[in-house]
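Ticket #4471: complex job returned nothing on first submit. Input attached below:
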Amino acid sequence: MIEIDRVSKWYGSFQVLSDCSTHIGKGEVVVVCGPSGSGKSTLIKCVNALEPFQKGEIRVNGISVSDPKTNLSQLRAHVGMVFQHFELFPHMTICDNLCIAQVKVLGRLREEAMERGLRLLDRVGLKAHAHKYPGQLSGGQQQRVAIARALAMDPICMLFDEPTSALDPEMINEVLDVMVELASEGMTMMVVTHEMGFARKVAHRVIFMDQGRIVEDTPKEAFFAMPRSERAQAFLAKILSH
Amino acid sequence: MTLALDFSFLTLDVLARYVIKGLFFSIELTLVAMLGGILLGTALALMRLSGVIWLSWPAALYVNAMRSIPLVMVILWFFLLIPLLTGKPLGAELSAMITFTLFEAAYYSEIMRAGIQSIPKGQIYASYALGMNYAQTLRYIVLPQAFRNMLPVLLTQTIILFQDTSLVYAIGAYDLLKGFEVVGKNFNRPVETYLVAALIYFVISYTLSRYVRRLQTRLAVIR
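Support reply: We reran it on our side without changes. The output follows.
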């Protein structure tokens, strides 16, 4: 589903990604972790070409994201993405947030988009808030809306870029619950997160990144039993010690 | 010396005959220059932010040039130049409308540029990630938010614009100030008429700026 092949990226002369390769198959849930500045957020943004990269190739569903001939809007429309800071559109109601891309990008009728949006909103438990503005919701609620907004586009896979990092602890679980449910339905997911509990529960594989490199790319069991690299061991020891 | 002011000649009838049409023109000029200026200014701001040199450079040149020349000179030059170029005069009122639109666009453009730049990059990422293209992202996500964030500043600029419309005296257009000037000459009472004119400008501008302040607090609540 997502094939990342020897991707390198530089900001000026500073290399943020070096030679990253991995494959994510259909229905697979892959957690990407690593210290801050390791390039994990940059890598996930390369998958739907929000960030350009200079070397290598990424194919989503067989379509290259760096090929100038690729219709990026069309590709992105079917790759759901959830951001650290939710990024709901603050000038629109929750309902409009859910509908705008369905109508403008997929060409759905407003009623159809609304019905689909409301159904997904109900699924994340927020149907009563449809006519509020994002600013009136809590962080956890906003992030659940953001997930519903992405799902409304009928994505073939979902990218999560630190979806719980900006949340208060008591709100993290309501977002993770939605993600766990999504994973159990067989959604292909690439998740940048430090939530090792989530990784343990639903991930098939864990990728560990450090200094722009994929240091470890192993099945979850092996990763949690004993990561091969020292860096990953140190990282795990740190975040699991509390 | 005593200042003997006499306002008795300023009847409603006199105001209606000489001043009202000037007031209407001042308001019309303000509205035209505001709408035209915001539209053209937004286009200039987008050109400057496009990152395409043959768009950003001319826009920057235009904005900086307009902001470095006194308005009254732009008014005069445009009024004098157009007949030279086209062979027929435009008329003071139409000439003023075009000049003010072109001039104010430079100021509105800087406001819109700041507004567009104030939109977090994540909003643009989110829009792209949903499959929206550049034009859709601007139209539905960036510009509405930029406009809303900048509304108080845009309106403040419009209040300045309203005051500046009095500069059309340079080309003899019939605006609010001109109306009072005519009355002052007819009744040989320039001091009184200019005083009243100042009062009218003050009342309109101050009312508007009070409104802007209220709007500001309201917008702050929404955000």
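The mean pLDDT of chain B is 92. Closing as resolved unless it happens again.
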